[in-house]
Write a structure and sequence with these properties.
89% of the residues lie in helices and 0% in strands. The protein has 3 helices and no strands. The mean pLDDT is 86.
Length: 90
């Protein structure tokens, strides 16, 4: 690109390029957050088991993470039961 043309069009193309870069960054962050939130504890537990079987995590790491996921599953089930009990009272 001609340097003079680049300098003359910079006031117009600069903000547009910046806007595209910003939207791409926002999209990547949103995709990352959604992928983490979409995975249920049961799915995460299966992935954890697969990592352990492939030797990518140690037995201690597996036990620790498994316990956290099981606790999360238990707390979610308790919350659902509590909500169902409240709905029955209404």
């Amino acid at each position: 690109m001609n340097p003079l043309l680049y300098v003359l069009t910079l006031p117009f193309t600069g903000p547009i390029k910046g806007l595209f870069a910003l939207s791409k960054s926002i999209q990547q962050q949103a995709d990352q957050e959604l992928s983490v939130k979409d995975a249920s504890p049961e799915t995460q537990l299966l992935e954890l088991e697969m990592l352990y079987e492939l030797g990518q995590i140690s037995k201690d790491e597996y036990a620790q993470l498994e316990q956290k996921l099981l606790d999360r599953i238990d707390s979610e089930m308790a919350a659902k039961e509590e909500m169902a009990a409240k709905e029955e009272m209404i």
